[in-house]
Amino acid sequence: MATEWDLLIAGAGPAGCALAAKSAARGFRVLLLEKSLEPGAGRDWIVDVENSAFEVAGVPFPGGEALWREPERTVMVSPDGEHRFELPPTPLTPVRNGAYVRQLAAWAVKSGACLRTCCNVSRALLEGGKVAGVVIEADGGGETIRADLVADCTGISGTVRRSTPEHWGLSDTAGPRDIVVARREVRRIDVEAAAKAVEEGILPDRLRLDRTGAHGTYSVEAVHLDLEGGFIDILVGIKPSFGIDATDNRFDEILRGWRFVGEKIFGDGGPIPIRRPLDIPAADGLLVLGDSACQVIPAHGSGTASALISADLASETIARAIGERRFDRAALWDYCFRFQTGRGALLAYYDVMRKFADTLDSSDLDELMACKVLTGEEVFSGLVPEPFKPRPLPLVKKLVRGYGSLPLLLGFARTGLKARKVMRHFEKYPERFDRGELADWSRRIPSY
To answer: Where do the DSSP E strands lie in 97-198?
Structure first.
């Protein structure tokens, strides 16, 4: 059956908009669907993106209101608040996600993509054992839209992929242990009252304070007050195992404690998947990108850079598939191979580290920071991200200082070895689609 669209993209977030722009620029018929009134209406919060990601992914650098004002320095604080260290300057750009998504959406439309908003994708359209389009709910009714290829960029909901048959291997969900619930808002301040708070030592100006582990090891409270900019940026992230409303309750508690904080300028909240990427982000007629494919940095939950990189890789695979008029999983496999052996391997490395961190408690972090075993060097690696490479002399000093925490040090050492083993396994991801070879690869993923 003839289709009106070469590529249908469900979800106009960073991955969806970048993929639409790149594919439409090649002359393909691209339909981009967004459930909100406009792209960028959801998850309009600040995201920290590696500077290199924009060039690597071949996307425009954030401009105008999308490029947010960054702090002069960042300081990490222990759970008990007694110990702290300053992070080295990190190559990260603070980006207002909503504004940047609108920038990318405008790029997609200018490139020739068709954008439809207020379209709620309800499931995949399955025909002949492949994804042949989607079913949407719009204006109180239902509609079926067919396309040669579908890209699921629907975020953590994974609406399209999760409606495919279980044996396709795409219907995995992220459980409570593999999710963090975050809330991040930029709010106006009473500048005079905030300046007084700075004088009293309550908060510093232009310095971001990151308190880690106060509500479980994988939790964060980050605050950046900017008197000149007239705002305060507040982030709280807590795993749902601490209570479904734990994040909102803590956020509201912070607001009640600082009377100089005013109305919200922008911000949002919601769950983020922090597990390793899906083993198989493609099926016949379907590719999965971004949060839907769990392509998030497990160390801190940022997924924008991964989404942009996956969009670039997917666009090249899609171009070949359309040119060859082949839309089966084998024709789409190059996307899976290139992502998993590159960015995916790095994300898998940090998933191992994240799971080990889940076995610790707040007092362990206090102890590690007190004896200067956990320093800015380790945190920097997770933010960039890159595998941690300890230098010999600093490592010896850490061992001496942390002798009393030897079981913890040994745990970190073993976990580091496991993480590298998992990363190397992802780097050996099957280059071509073969069910037997893929099953063998999945079976041999090192346990952690």
So the answer is: 114-116, 120-127, 130-138, 141-152, 179-189
Burial 1-25 (b: 16+ CB within 10 A, else e): eeeebbbbbbbbbbbbbbbbbbbbb
pLDDT at 411: 85
* Residue in this structure with the two tokens 């089966």, named with its chain if needed: 328
* Distinct helix (H) and strand (E) counts, the chain: 13, 17
Nearest to 118 by CA among 12, 30, 267, 210: 12
Contact 202, 189 (CB under 8 A): no
Task: Show Cβ contacts of residue 70 under 8 Å, excluding neighbours closer than 6 positions.
Answer: 93, 94
Cβ–Cβ < 8 Å for 168, 329 = no
Question: For residue 161, what are the contacts with CB-CB under 8 A and spacing of at least 6?
Answer: 124, 152, 170, 171, 278, 283, 286, 288, 292, 293
pLDDT in tens, 321-341: 999 999 999 999 999 999 999
Q: How far apart are CA 359 and CA 346, in angstroms?
A: 21
In this structure, the strands spanning 30-33 and 114-116 are parallel
Please write the tens of the pLDDT for every residue from 37-62.
999 998 999 999 999 999 999 999 99
SS3 label, residue 129 = coil
Pairing of strands 46-50, 92-96: antiparallel
Alpha-carbon distance 203 to 232, whole Å?
11
Q: What is the C-alpha separation between 311 and 292, in angstroms, rounded?
A: 13
Map 275-296 to HEC letters: CCCCCCCEECCEEECHHHHCCC
pLDDT band at 1 (very low <50, low <70, confident <90, very high): very low
Q: What percent of the chain has pLDDT over 70?
A: 95
DSSP at 295: -
Give me the sign of the Cα torsion angle 98, 99, 105, 109.
Answer: positive
Q: Are 49 and 66 in contact (CB under 8 A)?
A: no
Residue 57 CB coordination number (10 Å): 23
Integer-rounded Cα radius of gyration of the chain: 22
Longest dimension (CA), the chain: 71
Q: What is the number of other CB atoms lying within 10 angstroms of the CB of residue 166?
A: 9
According to DSSP, the β-strands at 141-152 and 130-138 are antiparallel
